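So, can you check?
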Amino acid sequence: MTTTPRTVEQRGLWFEQYEEGVRYLHRPGRTVTETDDVTFTTLTMNTQPLHLDAHWASKQPGFGGKRLVNSMWTLSTVVGLSVSQLTLGTIVANLGFSEVSFPNPMFHGDTLYAETVCTGKRLSASRPGQGIVHLEHIGRNQHGDVVCKAVRSTLVQCAPAGHTSGEEG
């Protein structure tokens, strides 16, 4: 008799699987290149010379004459690094970001590591089978310095009926 092997499809966490206070580490990190920064900056129509003009940046005080990585690239990548572990296929919508900050700069060649803390969750009062999950995303460079923090609210699907929270796939 031939048996069909169990299959597991990678996806994010169901609402029930989020645990308040848990710190989820997202690996691997992502090393930012000059191409990443210039491409992102020009695609988003950000003409800030601090990102695009090495000569101009070399004459500015404060960052050792180096160009800064576009902070929106940093925020986008921090959230992106969390997707496969937390929200892939289980998120319904981003509800909003708050308290976004960039306490330290990122430079070309830095590696960005992300982590997320679930700071709260509740079932949706208006959308059965879905819940609101509050996440604090933190980005750190290769030295452990915090380069990005953002609080995000998401709408997430509850597990399908008959699905136990410990199951994969």
